[in-house]
Amino acid sequence: MNNLFLFLALFVITLLVACDLKGKTSTAQKEPVKATTGAATAQASSTKDNTTPPAPASKGTGVEVKKINPNQKSFRIAFYNVENLFDIYDDPTNDGDNEYLPGTEKNWSNERYQNKLDQLGRALLELGEGEAPVLIGLSEIENAMVMRDLSKRFTGEEFGWVQYDSQDKRGIDVGLLYNKAVFTPKESEPLTIDFSFEKKEYTSRDILYVNGDFKGESIHLFVCHWPSRRGGLAVSEPRRVAAAKVTRQKIDAVLAKDADAKIVLMGDFNDEPNNKSMERILKAALSPDNLSKGDLFNAAHAINTSTVGTYNYQGQWNMLDQIVFSNGLLNAQKGLSTSANSMGIYKADWMLYTDKKHGKRPSKTYGRSKYYGGVSDHLPIYMTVEIK
Q1: This prediction's pTM
Q2: Strand ranges in the chain using DSSP code E only, listed in sequence order
């Protein structure tokens, strides 16, 4: 009888801790980062003691993790649209997670959740040749909990995260994972897009802005997932133009204080490098030549061809995921710097499937309610930064 009572007590405590994590994560996300406290630190403390979700647990990434040497001179930064990364718990404040719960039509489960995390971790580790990128921008994540669970795949490394809840009806957000040995967030905020011009209510993800210390040097980061092309390119373009205006306004504020500021934008922009939102509104140049102080360069344009991209729609490759950086980073004479050809796309055969009609394309997790078990419908991108 005593053993039965003890078992029931432990079971109830476990449920209470899991529920408490949900509540704490939501409130912590709304606090700004100040120095080493605030959103990222609060989220870390609210999740670190949570019990691991029920078995089956992770089967591992299959990649031997190489621990980052904080004194090395070269580091990788990555961005990944991870295609609806939801945990298995119901969040009463997020209607978007209702279809990603056990027992629903999608039949989302812990086994599927752990498998997806393992695959995402494998892709990011292979992208870094065994090293986890020190900064990882993510889109289509539910909350801080999934970021924490993903970071556990980088054995031996300690990661923090910054993420805010947005009003997106799909219940997905953007976030930043960072290696604590290399990067320390100092300030962050969600940049909300004004869609008041829409006839009907429209919501989307916020843009995440984070300023922090990268090996003793200030860097400004933007993680984006601009509005989709749903409804067609012409109908949806004003929404991405609105997102570009908000992003550009913040960039101008940063550059007004420091014309040589080191800035990196990464994300799924749902537009090509030469579309209006990117080239004319964001003002991201397609060539690294003749850049002036404060100019931006779109590193994705140089590798954007009809057979190369990050997303495949009906057999056509699109360069929707891009990395843009400032002239202050590109042409830095000392400290943190990069090169015009530093961006790459990571694509391995195991991340693809062959469509009978359209050929190879990223292997997605779901097609509507049908489970395919792939890693994501997008490919991850990366850039290399060096310290001179």
Answers
A1: 0.87
A2: 74-85, 135-141, 159-163, 173-179, 183-191, 207-214, 217-225, 263-268, 284-285, 296-298, 311-313, 316-318, 321-326, 336-337, 344-345, 352-355, 359-362, 366-367, 370-371, 381-387
What the block records as the tokens of 34 is 């100040």
Within its chain, how far is the Cα of 200 from the centroid?
28
Percent helix, strand, coil in the chain (nearest 5)? 25, 30, 45
| Domains by residue range for the chain, with CATH | 54-387 (3.60.10.10)
Greatest Cα pair distance, the chain, in angstroms, is: 79
Task: List the single range of 2-6, 92-96, 203-207, 240-244 with lowest mean pLDDT.
Answer: 2-6
For the segment 44-78, what is each residue's pLDDT rounded down to a tens digit?
A: 333 333 344 444 567 889 999 999 998 899 999 99
SS3 366: strand
Distance CA 361, CA 379 (A): 9
Pair type for strands 321-326 and 263-268: antiparallel
Per-residue exposure over 96-120, b if at least 16 CB sit within 10 Å of its own CB, e if not: bbebbbeeeebebbbebbbbbbbbb
Q: How would you label 52-64 residue by residue, b for 16+ Cβ within 10 Å and e otherwise?
A: ebeeeebeebebe
- The DSSP call for residue 281 is I
Residue 330, φ and ψ in degrees, nearest 5: -65, -45
Under 8 Å CB-to-CB from 148, ≥6 apart: which residues? Answer: 43, 44, 47, 48, 161
Q: Distance between CA 132 and CA 77 in Å, rounded? A: 9
Tokens of 69: 């040497």
The token pair that represents 166 in the structure block: 């947005």
CA distance 353 to 368: 17
3-state secondary structure of 22: helix
173-179 and 159-163 as β-strands: parallel, antiparallel, unpaired? antiparallel
8 Å CB contact between 130 and 122? no
